[in-house]
Amino acid sequence: MKAYDVKKGNVVEHNGTVFQVRDIERSSPQGRGGNVRFRFTMYSVPGGNKVDASFDGDDELKEVELLRRQASYSYRDGEAFVFMDDEDYTPYTLDADVVGDDADYITDGLSGCFVQVIDDMPVGVQLPQTVALDVVETPPELKGGTATKRPKPARLSTGLEILVPEYIANGERVLVNTTSGEFSGRAD
C-alpha cells in the first residue's frame, strides 16, 4: 500500500518491525513539482516503542494482516480498557496508551467497536464513526443568537470539550465524530 493510502490505526511493516500508525501529519511542498511528505507517529506491536518516520506519498509500505473482531466496551480495569468480543465473549484488554485520545469517546456499553488482533494479542481499537455523548456543561443560548451560526464550547460526559451550535443545552445527547472530534448532530 502507498503511504498516502495509510490511515490512522493501520498496521504496517517498516524496517522488519510491525507498527500501528497512531498519527499522521501531511506536509505539502511550497515549490512546483515537490512531493507530498507524510510523517507517521507509529508504535511497535507488541512493545509499544514510539517511532516517528517520514515517507513520500508514493513510498510502498506493507500492510500487516490482522484480525478485526467486533466488540463492545465492557469496563475499565485500572488504566486498561476491557472490550468484550460480540460473538464468543473473549475479553480483550487494551492499555490506556494504546487507546490514546480515543478514550474521550468511550462510554459504558459502547458497541460497534473493532478490536485489532495480531497473533491472538489485541493491538488496537477502531471506534464507530460517531458516538453519542451527554452534554454536561455549556453556556445558555443567547436570545437572538440564531441569526448567526456561532458555536459555543461544551463539556461532555467523558470530559471531552467540543464546539456545539448555540441551540444545544445542558443534558442533551449529541453525536460526535470520532475521527475529527467535531459535533455531528443531536442524538436520539
Automatic annotation (TrEMBL):
Residue stretches in coiled coil: none
Transmembrane regions: none
Domain Elongation factor P C-terminal: 131-186
Family matches, as PROSITE patterns: EFP
Alphabetical list of InterPro entries matching this protein: Elong-fact-P_C (IPR015365), NA-bd_OB-fold (IPR012340), Rib_uL2_dom2 (IPR014722), Transl_elong_fac_P/YeiP (IPR020599), Transl_elong_KOW-like (IPR013185), Transl_elong_p-like_YeiP (IPR011897), Transl_elong_P/YeiP_cen (IPR001059), Transl_elong_P/YeiP_CS (IPR013852)
SUPFAM superfamilies linked to this entry: Nucleic acid-binding proteins (SSF50249), Translation proteins SH3-like domain (SSF50104)
Pfam families xrefs: EFP, EFP_N, Elong-fact-P_C
Domain Translation elongation factor P/YeiP central: 68-123
UniProt family annotation: Belongs to the elongation factor P family.
NCBIfam families: PRK00529.1, PRK04542.1, yeiP
Record-given protein name: Elongation factor P-like protein
Species the sequence originates in: Luteimonas terricola
